[in-house]
C-alpha cells in the first residue's frame, strides 16, 4: 500500500462513543418511540427498491427518497429526518432534529455524542450510526435503537482498526442461533455494539458482557441504556476500567428483567473462575497473515485477534459452563491438504462436553481473502496496486500451508447435566434455513440429553410425535406399486431431507404420540408377515431410526 493510503494500527475512530445519563437516555428513548421510527417505517419511507438497495450497501436510491421526503413540506416527518441523519449520514437542520426529538433536541443529541454542533448554516451531522432494530420472542415484540460507528458507506473511508460494527448479518445469525430458554446467567463474549447483550437480557437474570475494546463496551453501555437499562455507575465512566460497570434493568422495560455487568479484557480472561448457563459469542476469528499486514491491512479489532484464537477459546469453554449449559458461537476453519476439517476442529473440543459443529458454507481461498480485504477497506477501486499486493500475499500464505478452502459455520458445546460419555457431531449442512435456529438448537440439545440416558428398550417404549413441519415426498416409476424413493423433508430447523426406508416412513407416518416405536415395529412386522428374526431386525432398525429422527427434529419425544 502506498504511504498516502496506509493506515497505522494506532489510528482510531474519529469520534468518542456516545454516553448518556439515565435521564438523557430515558428522554431520547421516549422521543424515538414517539417518532415511530422503526424498521417498517423506514421501508415505507424509502420504498421497496431503495430499501433493498440500501441493504446491499447502495446508498443513492435511499438518499433520493429521503431528500424528496425532506423537501416535501414545511415540517418533514421524524422518520425522514432520523433516517437521513443517522442511517444515511445526511446533514439536517438542527430545527428539524429539534422537532423530531422534542425532549432531547439537537443540543441534547450533541451533549450525548450523537451529533456535532450546528454548522454555520444551522445543520447538524451524525457522529454515529443509529438505527432501529426489532425482534419477536417469547417475551413479545421489542424495538431497540442501536448505535455504532459510522460505516464506510457514509464516510467514504476505510474502517478504523477500533471500529465498532452495528447490527450486521453475522450478529443476526448468532442472535437467531442462540437458544432463548430462560437462564440465570449469560455471557456475551466480545459484545461489540451490544446487540447480543440486548437479546440475552430478554431471558437471562444476569448478563456479563466482555470485550477487549473499551470503545465497544462504551457502545454497549449506551445501547443498553437506550433500551431501558439504567446505568448505576457514574455517568460517562469508562467501561474499559478494571472495575465492572453494572446496570439494572428497569422493571417492565423492553430489555427484560436482569442485571448487566460490563468487563474489559481479552476473551475469557475477564471471567476467570466464573461459570454461566449460556455463552454467546461472535469472536474475532479471521486470520490475517503477517504478510498481508505488511501490505497495509491493519488488525481490525472486531474481526481479528492477530492469531488463531478459536482453538484456545473453544478448549477453554468447559471451565465456564454450568451443568446443562451451552455455548453458541460463529467461527471459521481451514480445509488443509487432503485432511478432514472435522479432525482439525475436533481437536479444539473440551473433554467431557457434547459438541455440535455445523459447516454452513465453504469459500475458496481467493473468495475468502477478497471478502476480508474489502471488509477492511482495501479495495481495487480505491487502490488497485495495494489490493493486488495484499491479495497476492494472502494467496501465497494459503498455498504454502496448502489451504484449499475456508469453512464458515456454527460451534455449539454443551456440558451434560450428569457425567456421561459426550456426543460429538461435526457435519456440513448447506440447506436454506427458514426462520431462527435457536428453538431447534435448544430442542436438539434437550432431546440428546434425554436420549443419552436411554437404552434401546427405553427408546422402543417412547411414543414420538411427528414434528409439524415435516412433509413426505414419494417417487414412483409409472405403474409401480411401491415407491423407489421416499423423502422426509423438514420445513424448519436446518431444512434437512432424509431418504427413508418404507419402515422408517411408516414410523414417521403414524407418530401421533399414541403408539410406541416398538408397537409400530410389531405392527409393520405383522403386516409384512416377517419371521421372528426379521421382526427383531426391523425393531432394531426403527429404534435406530427413531434416535436419528428425534435428534434431527423430525420427531419429538412425546411421552
Q: Low-confidence segments, ≥5 residues, pLDDT <50?
A: 1-10, 231-258
- DSSP strand count: 19
Largest sheet entry: 10 strands, mixed
Mean pLDDT: 89
- The percent of residues in helical segments reads 25-40%
For the structure shown, list the relevant keywords.
21 helices, three-stranded antiparallel beta sheet, alpha/beta, single chain
What would your notes on this structure say?
This protein is an alpha/beta fold and 559 residues long. It has helices at residues 22-35, 39-46, 48-55, 60-70, 78-87, 94-100, 105-112, 152-155, 169-177, 195-200, 214-226, 290-294, 310-316, 341-346, 365-375, 384-400, 438-451, 456-460, 502-509, 517-527, 532-551, and strands spanning 92-93, 123-124, 129-137, 140-148, 183-189, 204-211, 229-231, 245-249, 259-264, 276-281, 321-336, 354-363, 403-414, 424-428, 465-466, 470-475, 485-490, 497-499, 555-556. The protein has a ten-stranded mixed sheet with strand order 7-8-9-6-5-10-11-13-12-14. A three-stranded antiparallel sheet has the order 16-17-18, with no helix packed on it. A two-stranded antiparallel ribbon has the order 1-2. The chain is globular and about 95 Å long. The N and C termini lie far apart (65 Å). The relative contact order is 0.08.
Amino acid at each position: 500500500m502506498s504511504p498516502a493510503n496506509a493506515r497505522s494500527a494506532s489510528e482510531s475512530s474519529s469520534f468518542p462513543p456516545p454516553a448518556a445519563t439515565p435521564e438523557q437516555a430515558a428522554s431520547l428513548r421516549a422521543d424515538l418511540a414517539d417518532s415511530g421510527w422503526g424498521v417498517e417505517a423506514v421501508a415505507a419511507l424509502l420504498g421497496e427498491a431503495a430499501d433493498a438497495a440500501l441493504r446491499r450497501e447502495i446508498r443513492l436510491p435511499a438518499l433520493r427518497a429521503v431528500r424528496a421526503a425532506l423537501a416535501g413540506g414545511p415540517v418533514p416527518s421524524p422518520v425522514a429526518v432520523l433516517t437521513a441523519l443517522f442511517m444515511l449520514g445526511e446533514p439536517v437542520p438542527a430545527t428539524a432534529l429539534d422537532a423530531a426529538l422534542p425532549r432531547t433536541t439537537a443540543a441534547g443529541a450533541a451533549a450525548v455524542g450523537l451529533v456535532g454542533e450546528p454548522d454555520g448554516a444551522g445543520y447538524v451531522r451524525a457522529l454515529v450510526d443509529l438505527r432501529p432494530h426489532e425482534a419477536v420472542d417469547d417475551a413479545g415484540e421489542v424495538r431497540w435503537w442501536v448505535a455504532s460507528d459510522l460505516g464506510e458507506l457514509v464516510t467514504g473511508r476505510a474502517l478504523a482498526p477500533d471500529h465498532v460494527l452495528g447490527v450486521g448479518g453475522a450478529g443476526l445469525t448468532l442472535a437467531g442461533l442462540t437458544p432463548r430458554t430462560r437462564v440465570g446467567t449469560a455471557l456475551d463474549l466480545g459484545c461489540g455494539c451490544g446487540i447480543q447483550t440486548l437479546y440475552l437480557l430478554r431471558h437471562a437474570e444476569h448478563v456479563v458482557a466482555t470485550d477487549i475494546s473499551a470503545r465497544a463496551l462504551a457502545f454497549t453501555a449506551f445501547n443498553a441504556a437506550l433500551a431501558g437499562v439504567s446505568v448505576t455507575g457514574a455517568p460517562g465512566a469508562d467501561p474499559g476500567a478494571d472495575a465492572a460497570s453494572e446496570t439494572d434493568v428497569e422493571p417492565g422495560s423492553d430489555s427484560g428483567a436482569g442485571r448487566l455487568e460490563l468487563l474489559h479484557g481479552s476473551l475469557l480472561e475477564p471471567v476467570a473462575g466464573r461459570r454461566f448457563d449460556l455463552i454467546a459469542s461472535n469472536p474475532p476469528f479471521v486470520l490475517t497473515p503477517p504478510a498481508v499486514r505488511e501490505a497495509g491491512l491493519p488488525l481490525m479489532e472486531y474481526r481479528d485477534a492477530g492469531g488463531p484464537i478459536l482453538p484456545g477459546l473453544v478448549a477453554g469453554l468447559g471451565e465456564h459452563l454450568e451443568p446443562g449449559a451451552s455455548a453458541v458461537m460463529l467461527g471459521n476453519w481451514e480445509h488443509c491438504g487432503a485432511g478432514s476439517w472435522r479432525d482439525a476442529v475436533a481437536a479444539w473440543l473440551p473433554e467431557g462436553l457434547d459438541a455440535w459443529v455445523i459447516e454452513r458454507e465453504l469459500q475458496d481461498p481467493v473468495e475468502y481473502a477478497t471478502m476480508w480485504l474489502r471488509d477492511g477497506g482495501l479495495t481495487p477501486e480505491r487502490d488497485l496496486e495495494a489490493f493486488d499486493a495484499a491479495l497476492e500475499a494472502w494467496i501465497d500464505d494459503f498455498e504454502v500451508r496448502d489451504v484449499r478452502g475456508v469453512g464458515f459455520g456454527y460451534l455449539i458445546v454443551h456440558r451434560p447435566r450428569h457425567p456421561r460419555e459426550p456426543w460429538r457431531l461435526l457435519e456440513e449442512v448447506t440447506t436454506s434455513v427458514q426462520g431462527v435456529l435457536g428453538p431447534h438448537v435448544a430442542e436438539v440439545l434437550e432431546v440428546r440429553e434425554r436420549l443419552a440416558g436411554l437404552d434401546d428398550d427405553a427408546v422402543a417404549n417412547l411414543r414420538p410425535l411427528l414434528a409439524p413441519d415435516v412433509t413426505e415426498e414419494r417417487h414412483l416409476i409409472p405403474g409401480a406399486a411401491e415407491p423407489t424413493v421416499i423423502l422426509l423433508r423438514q420445513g424448519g430447523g436446518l431444512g434437512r431431507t432424509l431418504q427413508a426406508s418404507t419402515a422408517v416412513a411408516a414410523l414417521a407416518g403414524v407418530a401421533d404420540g399414541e403408539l410406541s416405536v416398538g408397537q409400530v415395529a410389531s405392527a409393520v412386522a405383522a403386516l409384512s408377515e416377517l419371521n421372528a428374526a426379521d421382526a427383531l431386525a426391523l425393531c432394531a432398525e426403527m429404534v435406530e431410526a427413531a434416535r436419528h429422527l428425534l435428534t434431527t427434529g423430525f420427531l419429538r419425544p412425546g411421552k
